[in-house]
Design goal:
Blueprint (H helix, E strand, L loop, with lengths): L15 H6 L1 H6 L12 H28 L4 H24 L5 H10 L10 H7 L1 H16 L3 H6 L5 H32 L14 H4 L6 H14 L4
Helix pairs in contact: 3-4, 3-6, 3-7, 4-9
Length: about 230
Amino acid sequence: MTAHTGPILEGKGSTDYERYVRVPELLELQKPKDKLVNPDEALFQTTHQAAELWMHHVDWEVGRAAGLMMDDPEGAADLLHRCRLIIDVLREQIIVLETMAPVAYHEFRTQSLGRGSGQESPGFKKLLEAGKRLWEPFQALLAARKLTALEIERDPRRNRECFRLVQAMLDYDEAFLKWRYTHMRLAFRIIGSKVLSLKGVPAAQLEAGSREPLFPELWETISTLTSEFKPTY
């Protein structure tokens, strides 16, 4: 009796892998090669499509982490560590775009992008809200345990679970800032610092975003701790 070796999942594709990952549908989202204004447009589109998928997933994990904070701070820390690794992937992905010649980008920027701008990215907008989504349950955790962020920093061993969570939040925040900084440097490298985006925003404005942490209170706590030990150096 011959075993059935074909796919058993519904969908397009000749294998279950293709059907589960939905490879045909994903590839259909690519601009046809004969419609590309410049060959590097394929790299640009692929990079941004992949980024939206990753950002969508980070948003999902942030929501899970927020829900775990009160009862399982370490579980929340694990998910934020995962998010940080994904943000690192996004940062490394951006660097690939630096292999484009600026003139190649300008060709499809002026002919293919319409009025589109990275500032309209739904995934990025959600990640900008991650700080607020995580900070509110974190404050609730502190209130429930009658702790402050400063007390956690003063005695990490006594407050091990909460300290690990704080570290994970800072790790994620730092990775997010590095990602924004790398994006700023990419923009400067490809279009310069004086050009307006397709939404009329100066490229130089990206620099401000690279200095805006999601959890400024946690960073300030570290400064406060330092001042308690030695106010001046």
